[in-house]
Amino acid sequence: MISIQQLSKTYTSKEGTVVGVDDVSLSINQGEVFGIVGYSGAGKSTLLRCLNILERPTNGKVTIDGIDLMSLSSKELRKARQSIGMIFQGFHLTMAKTVVENVGFALKAAGVGRVERKQRAEELLELVGLSDKANQYPAQLSGGQKQRVSIARALANNPKVLLCDEATSALDPNTTQSILHLLKKINKELGLTIVLITHEMEVVKEICDRCAVMEQGRVVEEGDTYDIFANPQNELTERFIKTVIDFTIPEALLKKTQGTIVLLKFTGELAGEAIVSDLLQEHRIRGNILHGKIDYIQEKPLGTFVMELKGDEQEVNRALASLGATLGEVEVIENDRSTDYTMARAE
Amino acid sequence: MIDQLITLWPELSKSFIDTLIMVGIGLVVSFVVGLPLGLLLFVTDRDLFLENKWVKSITGVIVNLVRSVPFIILLVFLFPFTDLLLGTTTGPVAASVSLSVAAIPFYARIVESSARDIDRGVIEAAISCGASPWLIIKDIIFPEIKSGLISGLTITAISLVGYSAMAGTIGGGGIGDLAIRYGYYRYDNFVMFTTVILLIVMVQVIQYVGDFTAKSVKKS
Ligand SMILES: Nc1ncnc2c1ncn2[C@@H]1O[C@H](COP(=O)(O)OP(=O)(O)OP(=O)(O)O)[C@@H](O)[C@H]1O
Ligand SMILES: [Mg+2]
């Protein structure tokens, strides 16, 4: 649906050049919710703004639905933008227009006549659950309501793609949830492809099918959201995931432990509790769960357990090896032997 | 005192009307020409949707040139042009030529600066909707700056009252001219005070009407 090839954007000024996006290639499929995460200044907004040429890339190519956006004349580009909706962190509504007029503006831009405009704008407000606010001004609305208006405006011309620049960053957790639900709903019902940037991994976990992690203008990791969470490759990605799945054991507690501390991840169909109880029965060791949590990502469970294993050294090692065989990976966080049981299965 | 007022009346009312003509024409022209000029200055600015370095700098330079010439000099400088345009350099209509020339860039800068106060994001959102430049100007920028435009007209009108006094003294007529002729050349304090009071009242009325209108168009 969206193909980004070797895209770069540099800003040149008297003070020198700043790299916004550095040689990014991505492809985003029809109907998926694609997340882009990264810290402030990573180039997320710049990349997103290149997707509707709000920012003209310095190099590379952007194709949406088979149309090479950079080759279009300004009139053709305006037409293309009508099928690429965009919403922003700051909503960007016109304060001097009512809610229904704000939505109607997008339709006006597409040349829709007055009567049809009114009807369509009302339909859209219905879709985002704001029918009763049609004749109010944005100043009279809450943040979440404003974002709903801007979603209605972005959807006005039946776009194929919706770009979201930190759409929930200005909202409280509850409102964030409701906006994310709305986005998921329109993704499902309208088959809309959504590209969403955020610095909150929670948002990615909530609704993204796939995601990319950016740092200094580059994509450092990309993949299926579940895989990224289950098996992050990059150190930055790991840090992001820790903001959602935090299994750091307090230092004081660690000091009190004597055994081997292991981190176990149960992915997909593996049922964590059963494996742990089997383990304790089959080996002559004692186990103590320090942390245990199951997160649902893309409706698939991801269990994260931190355990302290106590007993005879050899017996513990054997237990670890068999765990490694079932799980594929067991990370030993702390012991004096520091053996790596990763890929024990391969033996 | 009543007697004095009665004798002065014909001249006073004529001067008043002359001032109104000068301010009125100046105001209309500055609006009609200054508004598009101000918008042009805005939309051709860096990072805006009609960014154009050349248009921006040339317009900017012309506007600054006119604004940097002291009005009294501009007035004399424009005499030949006024003569060419109207065949005369005296009377309120002739005076309003230079008043307009001075007021256009003044108002254009006011328009530009109130447009700058618009949140860039709002304009960006309009661009991302695929709106044409004209639609953005008409439907986004204009409504957002409407009350600023009216406040700007108020400021321009008040400046025009002041400038019209200067223009009046070299052939334009009007209240300023009356004050100078009687108050300055003949030491007639009565006329002096009457005209000053009249000017104060005029400025107050403009300010009041301007503020009221600006407030009433400001929705949200
Ligand atoms: N118009 C611009 N002119 C110059 N440099 C810019 C411009 N826009 C962005 N940059 C630079 O490009 C880099 C990426 O900025 P960008 O806004 O894309 O970051 P971001 O990931 O969206 O950050 P945030 O989470 O804070 O929004 C930054 O170093 C920024 O300073
Ligand atoms: Mg950003």
Q: Care to describe what's here?
A:
The complex is a heterodimer of chains A (347) and B (220). By secondary structure, chain A is α/β, with parallel strands linked by helices. Chain A has helices spanning 44-50, 74-81, 99-109, 114-127, 143-155, 173-190, 201-207, 225-230, 235-242, 251-256, 272-282, 313-327; strands at 2-13, 16-28, 33-38, 59-64, 67-68, 84-88, 161-165, 193-198, 210-215, 218-224, 260-267, 285-297, 300-311, 330-334. Chain A has 2 domains: 2-242, P-loop containing nucleotide triphosphate hydrolases (Rossmann fold, 3-Layer(aba) Sandwich); 251-345, 2-Layer Sandwich (Alpha-Beta Plaits). Chain A has a 6-stranded mixed beta sheet, sandwiched between helices. In chain A, strands 2-1-4-5 form a 4-stranded antiparallel beta sheet, covered by helices on one side. Chain A has a 4-stranded antiparallel beta sheet with strand order 12-13-11-14. In chain A, helix 3 (99-109) crosses helix 4 and helix 4 (114-127) crosses helix 5. Mean pLDDT of chain A is 88; it is low at 336-347. By secondary structure, chain B is mainly α. Chain B has a single domain (2-219), classed as MetI-like (MetI-like fold, Orthogonal Bundle), CATH 1.10.3720. In chain B, 85% of the residues lie in helices and 0% in strands. Chain B contains 9 helices and no strands. Chain B has helices at 2-43, 53-68, 71-77, 79-86, 92-116, 120-128, 133-172, 175-184, 189-217. In chain B, helix 8 packs antiparallel against helix 9. Chain B is elongated and about 70 Å long. The chains are: A alpha/beta (347), B mainly alpha (220). Chains A and B meet through helix 2, strand 6, helix 3 and helix 5 of A and helix 6 and helix 7 of B. The site of adenosine-5'-triphosphate (ATP) has 12 residues of chain A, from strand 2 and helix 1.
CATH architecture classification of chain B: Orthogonal Bundle
Percent of residues in helices of chain B comes to: over 70%
- The total of beta strands of chain A comes to 14
- From the 3D structure, determine the CATH topology of the largest domain in chain A: Rossmann fold
| Total domain count of chain A | 2
The portion of residues forming beta strands of chain A comes to: 25-35%
CATH superfamily of the largest domain in chain A: P-loop containing nucleotide triphosphate hydrolases
> On the 0-100 scale, what is the average pLDDT of chain B?
92
Low-confidence stretches of chain B: none
**Assembly state (oligomeric):** heterodimer
Keywords (chain B): Cell membrane, Membrane, Transmembrane, Transmembrane helix, Transport
Protein name (chain B): ABC transporter permease
Organism (chain B): Pontibacillus salipaludis
Domain ABC transmembrane type-1 (chain B): 16-210
